[in-house]
Amino acid sequence: MDEGEYLRQADAALQRIEAALEAVEGDIDFERTAGGMLQIECADGSKIVVNQQAAVQEIWVAARTGGFHYRWDGGSWRDTRSGEELHTALARLLAEQCGARLPPP
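User: That's the sequence. What structure does it adopt?
Assistant: C-alpha cells below.
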C-alpha cells in the first residue's frame, strides 16, 4: 500500500472510531489532535491513545493493559500479533479500562 492509501485508510478508521465514541454510554471524553492521534480519557483519568504510525503503516493503541499494533490487511485493521480487529479490540479495551460500551461501527 502506498502512503496516500495508508493515510486514507487510517483516517477513515479514526473517523469511524470517533463516530462510535460519540454514541458511547459512560463517562469518557475524547479528542483528536493534529498528526492523527485520538486520546480517550476515562472517568478515572486513565487514557487510551490511538494513533497513526505512518512510517510503518500501522495504527497503534496504548492502553492500561499494553500496547497494540494494527496493520491493514486489505479489508480491516488487524493486530499484528493476535489478529484481532481494531474496533473489536478497542471495544474490549474501553469496557475493561473505562467501563464503557463501544457500539459497532
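The beta strands are 28-33, 37-42, 47-53, 58-63, 66-72, 77-79.
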